[in-house]
Amino acid sequence: MAASGLILGIESSCDETAVAVVERGTKTRSSIVASQIAMHAPYGGVVPELASREHLRNVVPLTRAALAQAGCELRDLDAIAVTNGPGLAGALLVGITYAKALAFALAKPLIAVNHLEGHIHAVLLEDRQRRAGAGMGEPGPLPAEEAALPMPALALVVSGGHTHLFLARPPSAGPEMGSWRYSLIGRTLDDAAGEAFDKVAKLLGLGYPGGPWIDHLAQFGDPKAVPFTFSQIKVKSHLEGKAPRTKGALTAPIADLDRHFLFSFSGIKTAVLRYVEVNQMRAGCEARQQALMAMAASGHRPTWQDARALCDQQTLDLIASFQHAVVGDLLRKTFAAAEAVDAASVLVTGGVAANRELRVRFTAEAAERGLPVAFPTPALSTDNAAMIAAAAWPRFLAREFAGLDLEADPRLVLS
Length: 415
Ligand code: KG4
Ligand code: ZN
What we know:
The protein is of the alpha/beta class and 415 residues long. Strand 4, helix 3 (89-106) and strand 5 form a beta-alpha-beta unit. Helix 2 packs parallel to helix 3 (89-106), helix 4 (115-133) crosses helix 14 and helix 5 (193-203) runs parallel beside helix 8. It is 44% helix and 15% strand. The protein has helices at 37-40, 48-70, 89-106, 115-133, 193-203, 210-218, 235-239, 266-278, 282-297, 304-309, 313-340, 356-369, 378-381, 386-397; strands at 6-11, 16-23, 27-35, 79-85, 110-114, 153-158, 163-169, 181-187, 345-349, 373-374. Bound molecules: 5'-O-[(R)-(carboxyoxy)(hydroxy)phosphoryl]adenosine (KG4) and zinc ion (ZN). The site of zinc ion has 5 residues, from helix 4.
């Protein structure tokens, strides 16, 4: 069983190469992320071939750096954990191939972690760390089910690639603890929420990724100026395979889900586009994009303050209204689902969990309902490997190891 409790986590599912060492699923000894955002930004989205190439370039030096920062060596590790999906096939493959090579060469167990499970464990990891830091116990051999957040938790995983609701249940107690169980409660039928932020930002001439730009600019607009609504979701056409499929929709079946907990974000993107056209704002968006690109070309990395100076009040109102509508939709469905499945807490995770309006409104709603709510810190909101190493710990205890025939599964389902 556990000799050192040290697990090396490797994450390469999208545009971040990340390596971390986490002790017993609780103590982050190191967590290093090499972001490729600047490289993909000129294309307005992730270019898969470039992503794989960068992962390949980064994964070995990052592993060395993560071990050095953790003050340990490869031989001290108990296991190697790696994201095996969902994500970009070529990108996943880089992390998996390297993890397999390490596991084989060191004769250590290999643990496969679903990326969405990782995002959920980002919050659980920090929850345990906070508890340890608050003097409620040293980070020792802490069983995962002792997380302070009451369980089961309704988890909203909301990022550029995913918008899913899961009910997360800890392992049952006992010597054979087993690993966490997840039931899919809801998900998007088309775009992910982060994808909507990115597409709307692009349309308005703002930078990539769009979420942080919209988050900052929304505070200067009137969230009630444009009354966006979410139309009736056409579940039938999705079940019949007629509706268009986008990356947010790939990773789970919908036939058995309650339609009240399904999301759809492609409509609001089209509504923003229509608003821009009807109000003749197109030229302004293009001028804004040109101005921001010119700044970048002259060596000044544009900030949201620069963008604000380039936005008139109508644009700021549009941004605020868009964000208000998306956050409101996420909020209503998440809390309705929490009530329906009798969740004892709510956790929100993934890149969009960094959104400030989302945090404020979820916190207020949770307080009103007397339901604890948790978010990751900004560092663990976006992709990282500490969450992968943390999610692997209960699997390590349960001896749920992957074989050296582990493959990338771009559409891996969490259940
Ligand atoms: O989890 P993540 O780093 O990668 C994926 O797995 O997709 O999430 C990135 C997404 C992007 O769509 C980005 O626009 C969004 O998270 N995002 C935000 C904010 N920060 C990042 N969306 C809204 N508000 C933010 N503050
Ligand atoms: Zn992610």
